[in-house]
Amino acid sequence: MTDHFGEKHRVMLTAGHCVNSQNVPGLPIVNGEVYVPTKQGDQHIGKAGAHRFEVPVDDNNPSTLLRAFNGADYGFIVLDPEVATTAASYSEDENGESRGEPVVMTGIQDNRTLEPGEVSVDNLGKPICIDGSRTSRSCGHQVFRARNGVWSVGLGMDHGDSGGNAYNPETDEVIGVNSMVIGPISRVQPADVAIEEAYGVPDGQVAENFQVSDSSAQRNTEYRTISEDSAANADYQARHPKPLEEQIPGLSPDLGSLDLPGLPDIADFQMPAGISGV
């Protein structure tokens, strides 16, 4: 990646909420160091670089629709020098099953950047495929696009697919990264907009400044699946249970020592007239 100063950067693009540095309910807070889950343990690959995360997290909030259209969701990871890269996009689901051979990306799709709130249907009917760590590979059709979202139907995007590669299967060009789902419609954060905003690249010049890896080599590292990580996490929690007060925020650990008001002596209780005790 070459920025507007002519400086080169070796980066990886993912979803902004995957490198979230804000206190957002339901999302981990990344401290800047980025690791990947390999079979041999977590491996450091770089540091979080430029990132923006503005998509809604509350479906009942009135601003949900507006933020879904205009909110950015991209994050760049500045890779360590020794980390090998490849232009191949892999398809493996949460159990490690593949739904297709690796596809080598040829470049990046560079569309006219839309203004905030502007909607275009110039992509209506065009194909799109995504790779994700939960659902593997699925393909569908684009419907419309906004500044920070290419919206499509027919994709099986789900939790855990975020940050995965989205591409045009006719050209094998990168469209963007998986971002979110609202009902049957999936949203992809456009890669060209992310590059323009993060590195000051003028609209229409992204393809000249950003190149995918010049290697199409097969990856030589085995990664843990979502199912493996979930099972390991459940096993750890079972062996290291948290005290009840930590599991339920606000629960007082001293409930047993609270002073409760005394009860009246039964002998002093006066039965109302006309009612006899049993």
Describe this structure in words.
The structure is a single chain. Helices cover 14% and strands 28% of the residues. With 278 residues, it is an alpha+beta fold. It has one domain (11-215): Thrombin, subunit H, CATH 2.40.10.10. A 6-stranded antiparallel beta barrel has the order 8-9-10-13-12-11. A 4-stranded antiparallel sheet has the order 1-4-3-2, covered by helices on one side. Strand 2 (33-38) and strand 3 (41-53) form a beta hairpin. It is globular. Residues 274-278 have low confidence and may be disordered. GO terms for molecular function: serine-type endopeptidase activity. One of its GO terms (biological process) is proteolysis. Pfam families: Trypsin.
- Side by side, the strands of the main sheet go 8-9-10-13-12-11
**How many strands, which pairing sense, and closed or not: the largest β-sheet?**
6 strands, antiparallel, barrel
Query: What number of domains?
Result: 1
Number of strands: 13
H/E series, N to C?
A: EEEHEEEEEEEEEEHHHH
How many helical stretches? 5
The class by helix and strand makeup works out as: alpha+beta
Mean pLDDT: 86
* Cα separation of the termini: 88 Å
What would CATH call the architecture? Beta Barrel
CATH superfamily: Trypsin-like serine proteases
- Give the CA-based shape: globular
State the helical fraction. Answer: 10-25%
Radius of gyration: 26 Å
Which percent range describes the beta-strand content?
25-35%
Q: What is the CATH first-level class name?
A: Mainly Beta
CATH topology name, in short, is Thrombin, subunit H
